[in-house]
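Quick illustration, no need to memorize.
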Amino acid sequence: MDDEQRQPGPGPLAGFTVGVTAARRADELGALLGRRGAAVLHAPALRIVPLADDSELLAATRRLIDRAPDVVVATTAIGFRGWVEAADGWGLGDALLERLRTVELLARGPKVKGAVRAAGLTERWSPESESMAEVLDRLLAEGVDGRRIAVQLHGEPLPGFVEALREAGAEVVGVPVYRWLPPKDLGPVDRLLDAVVARGVDAVTFTSAPAAASLLNRAEERGLMPALLAALGHDVVAACVGPVTAVPLEAHGVVTVQPERFRLGPLVQLLCRELPARVRALPVAGHRMEIRGHAVLVDGEPRAVPPAGMALLRALSRWPGRVVPRADLLRALPGAGRDEHAVETAMARLRTALGTPKLIQTVVKRGYRLALDPATEGKYADD
């Protein structure tokens, strides 16, 4: 059990909304985020072609059985297991395993090595680092000119890997395990895109490069690419499980955050540090207030605040302790028109939601201000 699970209270992600683009293991990632207090917006950006129905994988498997490669590179445990299981379903399982026993089989890391051995095979070599760069270095050091190398793909791009082998003279055969297609229902993806553009989410998680590319493609189709990139560039965190996943985003200039270990748990732990660190805690009326994405923490307790109230609170927090005129607050309200009574109504609801009315002071005939603690007013005077 990690630190976030042991901590009492609402959780480090309370008040934040996180988008999940994963198709596979989306429920697991959503549960990890939810247990730490986040509101989760599920929007699978892809769907997986069922292995049993994948004609391209079937054709690639038959080609390898008919003509043996010199080397087979197994890149993921789940992909390798799925390939063997699909071959069994087609009646080709024994033939595939027999062929794999005759080749130089390389397994990218301990998990893949476990899957290889579970199939009754023995890898020739496996790097402890799980690095495709290390696999490439070994192949190039051995010499690949004129050799036929099969690479088990997993829906992920392998930047430079295949190209480097081909430039060195190898014939590279892709084994397309788990191909991706756009989702049949684009509604959830469109809702996520709209939420990102409107800053209605605080972070979006990506666990595969195809998912990132699919979201970008959909934004392009809808004419939202500039707005999406602006949001990801300033207000919404793009959290990727690893550097390969980040490639499509970084190609568009998006700065991503990534955990040191490329796993779901570390990805969630990264957000547990990253999102709270972006929030400024304000000492107001003897309380500690944090304004988060869809909620406010008052002395560590989350208070759900309606969108109009959040708009007012953000406007007040830009100048902590200063009086903000009603006219400025009216402009901050979405769709409020010109009636300043809308400010009074939204302010009353905001105070009720906060549960501590004295956090916001009314300054007669002028406007409203956060009741910043007197000892700290100078600290925020020039913010």
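Residues 281-380 form a domain with the Arc Repressor Mutant, subunit A fold (CATH 1.10.10.10).
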